[in-house]
Give the backbone structure.
Amino acid sequence: MTTAVLIHGFSGSPASWRRVEALLDVPSHAPAVCGHGGESPPAISKGSASFEAEVDRLAAVVEAEVPAPRLVVGYSLGGRLALGLLVRHPDLFLGAALIGANPGIGGEDARVARRRDDERWARLIEEEGLAVFDSEWSALPLFASQHDLDAGRLAEQRRTRLRHDPAALGAAMRVLGLGAMPDYRPVLPGVLCPVDLIAGSLDTKFVALARKMAEKLPDASVHVVEGAGHNVPLEAPVELARLLNATLGNVNRDNRY
């Protein structure tokens, strides 16, 4: 039976998947992204880490801890890391579901500008603390659709963020931010496995990105979750689980993936 490997977003944790995991028809494994489990890994602390080093670390974790066959599922930062896994370790997974994922940005000016933004967030985390970060991060237009969620779900998300180590999370922003990520758009045609691209209907930027990615990927499907914003695992876990179960059902039925 296929195992779903679930990679969380920035400032999330493996527990961010609990509502989705409870509804999956298959086993799942949710690793912690570096900088999100307490102390930073030595490579981050020493300044020698990179986005693709984290991709390779996750690949080693998956290979050691998760039996094949596997489907990788990633949300936001997790979706970007999942795409990196498909590019750098294509034999690990039979398919993927990328939720609110950005394939990368090109042009040095744009990349420098994004790294400046990422640095500002990293400094805010380190200097102002996680409570201030949570308030400002939650206020981004990207997450406006969460304002209508029940208070308990939002409180749980806040508790997850506040449990992190500020130094580790700040370092992760520098290493794993979009400005530090390679631009994977030119290599999308080489990703041969089936890829589901998922975005909330209210997250128009990422719906457009998903459709652009689908034009370059050889075997891609776009799924728009009505009424959801960027964080589909938080906002629409039932619908997301339904989509993932459909994909996993195809995997287990005919091993096409």
Q: What stands out?
A: The two ends are 12 Å apart (CA to CA).
